[in-house]
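Researcher: Quick test of sequence recovery. Tokens follow.
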């Protein structure tokens, strides 16, 4: 706790995202524009979190801090996992056709087809340091945030007072930290390119009594936060509460089996079969975030898939259906009237005395 109070004198910027805190060097900025994560819960006390961050800004390097409830194994994950997940949860697309024309349809207009200890805590040590692709990954033992500050300072970064304060609940709970330095490789002696676009995904595997997605550090964000969280478990999953955000929205819920998936990263995570739940949540006021998301079994395994529908004028080939339907009786009436008129004319021509010309009466 004493180390945390000492860190409050440091005021370099710290940007939060749903999975942890992003720290940049003095004078540079880095914005997490998108965060997508996958939680895999085996039900046996082992949890995986696969995260992909999309960033933008002028920072050539940054550090990212992720608190975890147990010692984590960190590896690179497969980027195609997220493409495969997006394909699975894509909404069903349906076209609803209507018969009678609407404004803009007349006569045959083209249709629009767009549609987050005390002093008796044990000493803190750096468990390991590894290079994974563009990441320098350090795993730090639990109990003392000063170790995290030392690591950051050695790499040119420092914790702000607000971030140090936000770490206090994790220190009290005995959590550990995964500290990741993001640094794209540049030319020798150069500053290197700025961090931009999707970063390579990372996989964290750790032991925990119940599945959790850390969110508490997101309360430091200055702008609205959005969480997109995939959960693979034995059953449909929900959260215990909203932790200060809007209600959690279920976007997809369905059981996956390996037979219905192509060979790839997702199929490996599904194993013999798992239930996939996709949760969305908005945090309009990140300062109200008051905890981490604890994931629990939903009340039922009811499946759900969104449907995106668009409306089109019903056509038969290139012709709107209403035209021949309405036009046919009119055409028949015209033909019938023409036929009747023709019959009447012929009858009038064959009536006695209808002949013309001067002829005398028989003598």
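Model:
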């Amino acid at each position: 706790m004493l180390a945390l109070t000492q860190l409050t004198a440091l005021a370099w910027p710290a940007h939060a995202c749903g999975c942890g805190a992003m720290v940049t060097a003095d004078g540079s900025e880095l914005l997490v524009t998108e965060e997508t994560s996958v939680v895999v819960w085996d039900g046996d006390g082992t949890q995986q979190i696969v995260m992909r961050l999309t960033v933008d800004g002028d920072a050539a390097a940054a550090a990212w801090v992720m608190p975890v409830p147990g010692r984590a194994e960190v590896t690179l994950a497969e980027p195609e996992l997220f493409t495969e997940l997006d394909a699975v949860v894509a909404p069903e697309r349906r076209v609803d056709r209507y018969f009678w024309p609407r404004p803009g349809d007349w006569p045959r207009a083209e249709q629009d087809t767009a549609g987050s200890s005390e002093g008796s805590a044990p000493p803190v040590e750096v468990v390991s340091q590894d290079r994974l692709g563009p990441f320098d990954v350090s795993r730090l033992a639990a109990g003392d945030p000063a170790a995290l500050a030392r690591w950051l300072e050695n790499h040119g970064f420092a914790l702000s007072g607000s971030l140090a304060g936000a770490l206090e609940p994790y220190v009290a709970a005995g959590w550990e930290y995964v500290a990741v330095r993001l640094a794209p490789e540049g030319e020798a002696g150069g500053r290197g390119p700025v961090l931009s676009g999707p970063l390579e995904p990372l996989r964290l595997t750790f032991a925990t009594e119940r599945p959790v997605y850390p969110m508490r550090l997101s309360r430091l964000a200055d702008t609205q936060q959005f969480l997109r969280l995939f959960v693979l478990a034995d059953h449909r999953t929900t959260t215990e509460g909203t932790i200060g955000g809007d209600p959690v929205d279920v976007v997809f819920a369905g059981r996956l089996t390996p037979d219905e998936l192509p060979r790839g990263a997702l199929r490996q995570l599904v194993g013999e079969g798992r239930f996939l739940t996709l949760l969305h949540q908005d945090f309009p006021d990140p300062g109200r975030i008051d905890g981490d998301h604890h994931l629990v079994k939903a009340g039922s395994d009811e499946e759900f898939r969104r449907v995106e529908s668009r409306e089109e004028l019903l056509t038969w080939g290139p012709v709107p259906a209403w035209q021949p339907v309405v036009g046919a009786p009119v055409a028949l009436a015209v033909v019938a009237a023409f036929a009747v008129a023709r019959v009447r004319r012929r009858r009038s021509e064959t009536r006695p005395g209808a002949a013309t010309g001067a002829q005398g009466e028989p003598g």
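The first helix runs from residue 2 to 7.
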